[in-house]
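Weekly modeling sync, notes
Attendees: AB, CL, MP (scribe)

Item 1: holo prediction request
CL wants a bound-state model with 2-amino-3-ketobutyric acid before deciding which constructs to order. AB pointed out that an apo prediction alone won't tell us much about the pocket. Agreed to run with the ligand included and paste results into these notes for async review.

Input as submitted:
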Amino acid sequence: MRRALVIGAGGQIGTELTTRLAKELGGLNVVASDLNAPKISENTAILSLNLDVLDQVRLRQIVVDHEISEIYHLAATLSATAEKNPGFSWHLNMQSLLNILDLAKEGLIQKVFWPSSVAVFGPGSPKSNTPQNAFMNPNTVYGISKSAGENWCNYYFEKYNVDVRSLRFPGLLGYKSDPGGGTTDYALWALKNAAHDTPYISFLENNSGLPMMHMEDAINGIIKLMNAKSEQVKVRTAYNISSASFTPEELEKEIQKFKPAFEISYQSDFRQAIANSWPDSLDDSEARLDWDWNPKYNFSSMVENILEGFKKTSDPN
Ligand code: AKB
């Protein structure tokens, strides 16, 4: 019997992953947790709890009490927020992962999903179609913690046979949940503003290309990777995955096909340096080969679908 604990269930990925897992496993087999117990709107069978992932005692108790077999660990400070509080962000991002890997090492849980990021790459990495095993010199606290975390995952797999799986996510765009504290967030705010006929001021420059993906593809990727047979998962650091790459100016033009009056103006800030250090696209051929990664959306269909989705929501903030 599979029973999942989602940590960080109130966040951008967690909100959508929790309800998707409930569809896969049944609501009674999903426990959602966050610093404050998250509100679950779509499936009332899901149990919602408060959990500070740094509290190892409570984490263990929840795992034992609810007979958890797999953990989806999504709690982290993202790239922009982490730069403002490097010490705490390093501690949160690293210690929380180690707490969970240790539970798996003890055999209390059988599987772990932990998201990595394109932020593992740095200014010295190839910019376009960045290979799976490209040189990495991340220069953000977030990127350093994701890169170290990937190596910890691989270490626990090799030394202790811990079944931990990970994906290097680009910017994730969906209309059901807001992002917070990332560098790629500009794209979602632009889409949300456009949907509500409001102009947008971008904190990245017009020609700043970054990799992006529809949230639905990201969630499908997590589910597919976690359902893959162990021997199919040949990369135990984290897989490159990819679907679209665009600049703010290209996004503006694409949005204008549906919202001709929409405009982006530019006032870049400290996040520009973060964006400059990241690739604009990743080579995801290993994920395609090993476990059949195959995203549904491209740039145009993603923009169209998200604008449509926002139309159904009324809150412009
Ligand atoms: C961020 O911008 O920090 C994240 C990421 C790319 O991991 N969305």
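Recorded for review: The pocket of 2-amino-3-ketobutyric acid is lined by residues 78-79, 117-119, 142, 169-171, 182-184 (CB under 6 Å).
Action items: CL to compare against the apo run; MP to circulate these notes.
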